[in-house]
Amino acid sequence: MSDQVWINLVWLVPLFPLVGFIINGLGRNVIPKSVVGFIGSATVFLSFAVSIAIFSELSSSPVKAFEIHLFDWIQAGSLTIPLSFLVDPLSSLMLLIITGIGFLIHVYSTAYMHDDAGFAKFFAYLNLFVFFMLLLVLGSNYIVMFIGWEGVGLCSYLLIGFWFTNINYASAAKKAFVMNRIGDLGFLIAVFVIFQTFGSVEFAKVFPAAANMVSGNGTLLLITLLLFVGATGKSAQIPLFTWLPDAMAGPTPVSALIHAATMVTAGIYMIARSNILFTLSPVTMDVVAVIGLATAILAALIALTQTDIKKVLAYSTVSQLGYMFLGLGVGAYTGAFFHVMTHAFFKALLFLGAGSVIHGVSNEQDMRLMGGLKKKMPTTFITMMIGTIAISGLPPFSGFFSKDEILAHAYEHNKALWVVGVIGAMFTAFYMFRMMFLTFYGSFRGTHEQEHHIHESPKAMTIPLVVLAILSAVGGVIGLPEIFGGHHWLSRFLNPVLEKSNALTENIPLSHSTEYLLMAVSVAGALVAAIIAYSKYVKKAHVPVEDFGPRNAFARLSYNKFYVDEIYDAIIRKPLDWLSGAFYKFIEKSGIDAFVNSLGSGAMEAGRTFRLFQTGNIGFYIFMMVIGIVALLVYGFYKI
Amino acid sequence: MDLLFILFFPLVVALVALINKNYSKESALIGSAITFFYTAALIAKFHPDSSTQFLVNYPWMYAFGINFKAGVDGINILLILLTNALIPLIILASYRHKYGNPSAFYALVLFMQTGLLIVFTALDGFLFYVGWEAALIPVYFICALWGGENRIRVNLKFFVYTIFGSLIMLIAIVYLYLQTPTHTFDIAAFYNLTLSGTEQSWIFLAFFLAFAIKMPIFPFHTWQPDTYTEAPTAGTMLLSGIMLKMGTYGAIRWLIPVAPLGFVQWGKWALVLAIIGIVYASIIAFRQKDIKRLIAYSSIAHVGLIAAGIFSWNVESLQGALIQMLNHGINVFGLFFVADIIIRRLKTRNLDELGGIAKNAPKFAIGFLIVLLGTVALPITNGFIGEFLLLLGVYQYNIWAAAVAGLTIILGAVYMLRMYQKAMFGPSNELTLKFTDLDGTERSIFMVVGALIIIIGIYPQPLLHLSDAAVTNLVQTVNAKIQSVKF
Asked: A Gene Ontology MF term for this entry (chain A) (predicted)?
């Protein structure tokens, strides 16, 4: 085992950002900005370097799972929860994504947040987030995963509410935390059921035992449904998705890192990690697929008419996460994870690009007041265009391969899922190109002062964009399918984690001609959507009137997000508020307390007698008390 | 002798503070710190097995079979630690207050400390009762003399409530005494009694009433929000941080083991009340404007979960209950300290008048946040360890009970974050604009509290280990007793 030097040092990976958090957190008022930015970025880079070493060691090792035990965290009765890490193909890839993209976003932030008063606080939070995210993916049991799971939720809360003097931002932060907590309760109860069923929460004990259970087992059904509830919270799926668009209140790098590339994919990671439990629960799988697809479509519909550039990307994220869940639900674990990776590349890119745009146009986020930025921000434009092509599923960029893999599996599973999925992909292409055209084409529609200030962002911001653009463009090679002469490296690499599930899933491979046909249809669909967007938003050279309203019935629904927030308000928040008042007024005060007081009035009479002893001298009372106790003691002992 | 010192040294300090009028708070602080360090040394000497250690047993009122019998074991050790750690903090937190007649004030706090310690260590029914009352009387005076405007009315309710509960308990204790063959108040003799199901049923109800009022459990709780609101901060801290644990501890030590058949009969109803209390108090907390009252309701919810864990009666839930008693003490002290800082600076308890404090007082914002995270049981804070074990234990009793009790995870986040947002976020207003950040004393208190919250959250094992053997033994003994009657 001495070959696995870095794998045994895996605790270094979360340790570096933790140290960064502590240094920047404690020294936030004294350390100069440049040093803060360096510490914040360098710690994540060190983690990235160790992650690469771990990855290469794991690739060359015949053993594909290592457990690194740190200490026993909680021990009570028959329950033992060690703080230990699991290094395997799945977690090693997540390490690379988190630290790699994390590093780029830290570098980007040094410029983006440069003039913010809370610069050091921002980097401290960001490092803390990376720490928790690494715990989440490294945990070798559900509880360590849960530490990370809730920890990233905390950082998300802190960063959404980063500019907390704006009460709306603070409310968005609270909403994110509370909605996540709803999911977390599901996760927690799932853990209890797992503990009771398997006598352990360790992956290494639970999964082999579960693999011997029959498909459709009721306990597994319960566990997986509860885990999925947890996933809907963290990964913003129906019905718990409404926090994510509001989360855009946070600084844009936060949206890129937390609310696009990493944290929100935790639900997909968790299900992929627990794949055997889900594979053996076909009912849950169907639920996952349907919820995923429904979320993908709903969010895409909303994205069609949004005018805030970050909102478009936010709903796009919700929608893409939906595709990942669709993939999980039809058993395409590799495909879903593939999409996690490619999405991390192109969505981080798009958000950072949007940040660059917002930076360039003096903090404007309304796309109707942008336009014509192509020439003035060429790097941002080109890199974002690559991201747009990638997310739209156009070959040969990365999103094409991962989305295609999910859709192909959906087709095998149920052709209706595929049809709806392709329609959603068309929407994706439309709203993304709409965003690009509104932002970069035509002529500038903002104020003169803004126009005067338009500038390309500094190198610290554009270099991360370029790196991510390259990854978005070529990232597909890791999962190049056979029909393009590839060997699907990702699928083989992840096989040790997914082996048992893959063996259980009946796999009727599609014929090559069918596969080509499916691809052709979805690519054609995306192209058509892009062309429609072009004719609507570029050819006409002005923003269509319907984007200013009055909108038709459908556009109104879409623009107002199908009134989901309002519905939740009416059926959950308002009744609870009412209940709170009613409990207080009718049960607490007029009920219990009134009853008690009526009993007490008798005692009041008795109380009057008491008063005769009240001379008002407290010293006297205490003296009497001490005397009393001492007398009692002495009396007792004396009597012996 | 170790234990005797810990029990009665606070009384000595009380007298010193009383005599040493000009330096009463300094005397109280130093004295209570000595008690704390002595306690820490005692805990270091403690062997984590199921035995009773540092036992003191003197015949006291021989004719009545009353002994001064007290000891330390895995069940009460964390509460001794809590009491003696929190008292110096409470004294320090009172430093900034200009209490009239401070020597009497600090003497009462210290007097109460002895009462509390007697309750937690007593192994004799009569001694337990003496401690129970000795802890009540000082806090009654603290609230009545240094409390808010409505203190007299509110205090009377509190006093009558708890006296009522404790008198019923006294009847039960005397009844048990009369049943013992040798007429003794020794707890071991109480445990060995073989009473009929009906007798145990009544015993259970009598003890339960006293403990339920003290915790408090729904619907015996209505004295609590009023009292917490009207009491001076130190009084509220004593009541919520330490005194309510007399109820939860009593349930573990005196209620269930003494009347296991009563527990079989009534335990599930007690559990139901506890769980109703969690949801009910949480929902009421949603809309409270008074910051102290909000914390008071949150405390009912959190204690409800501890009670639910106790009535689930398994190793995980009891381990959770014991460590959560410690955690709740730390966290609720922190919350009331937060409230005190706001009230002392701004002279208002109304959340609607606050806002934007975080901007002017970033250190305070961090301190408040850490206490809040412990309260909402975020992992790697102390609250998570307790609530996780409690909910796991409740789950093992019944999945639906756990699902409803688990709502505290969500509801707690709702009212706590709402409080934080209303006080700390948004723009500052005229009132909060002049909010000054923490001074040195306040900062050190937050450092201690924050360190405890995080250290216990990261490495709870040493604490869990202290009680592990004793809890396992207690659960087995009681379950064996129940089984032996059932079959």
From this structure: NADH dehydrogenase activity
Pairing relationship of beta strands A66-76 and B53-61 according to DSSP bridges:
unpaired
Please give the Cα distance from A479 to A96 (Å, whole number).
16
Neighbours of A483 (CB within 10 A): 12
CB of B379 within 8 Å of a chain A CB? The answer is: yes
* Residue B407 contacts residue B278 (beta carbons within 8 Å): yes
CB contact under 8 A, A167 and B427: yes
Question: What is the rounded distance in angstroms from the CA atom of residue A21 to the CA atom of residue A43?
Answer: 9
- Of B18, B407, B464, which has the smallest distance from its Cβ to A76's Cβ? B464
Domain map (residue ranges) of chain B: 2-486
The residue type of A482 is E
User: Terminus-to-terminus CA distance in chain B, angstroms?
Assistant: 44
Q: Which of B219, B358, B391 lies at the smallest CB-CB distance from A592?
A: B219
For residue A451, what pLDDT is reported?
A: 87
Q: Decide if A615 touches B, using CB distance below 8 A.
A: no
Residues A308 and A131: their CA atoms lie apart, in Å, by 31
% helix, strand, coil for chain B, step of 5 = 80, 5, 20
pLDDT digits (tens, 9 = 90+) for A393-427: 998 899 999 999 999 999 999 999 999 999 999 99
Report angle CA A133, A265, A300 to the nearest 5 degrees: 145
Within 10 angstroms of residue A365's Cβ, the number of other Cβ atoms is 17
- Nearest-angstrom CA–CA distance, A329 and B175: 64
Q: How many CB atoms sit inside 10 A of residue B215's CB? A: 28
Q: What is the pLDDT of residues A466-519, one digit of tens each?
A: 999 999 999 988 888 877 877 788 999 999 999 888 888 766 777 888 888 999
Instruction: Answer yes or no: are the C-beta atoms of A178 and B417 closer than 8 Å.
Output: yes
Q: How many residues does chain A have?
A: 640
Nearest C-alpha in A relative to B135: A625
Closest Cα in chain A, distance from residue B343 (Å):
21
If residue B172 lies in a helix (H) or strand (E), which one and from where to where?
helix B151-179
Other CB atoms within a 10 A radius of the CB of residue B321 amount to 30
The whole-angstrom distance between B262's CA and the closest CA on chain A is 25
Phi-psi region of A68 (alpha: psi -120 to 50; beta: other; left: phi over 0): beta
Q: What are phi and psi of A481, to 5 degrees?
A: -75, 165
Strand segments (E) across B52-99:
53-61, 66-72
Say if the Cβ atoms of A625 and B161 lie within 8 Å: no
**Which region holds residue B186: left if phi is over 0, alpha if psi is between -120 and 50, else beta?**
beta
Q: Does B314 touch chain A (CB under 8 A)?
A: yes
Q: Where are the domains of chain A?
A: 1-160, 161-559, 565-639
Nearest by Cα to B362 from B290, B287, B446? B446
Written as six digits, the tokens of A387 are 């991201």
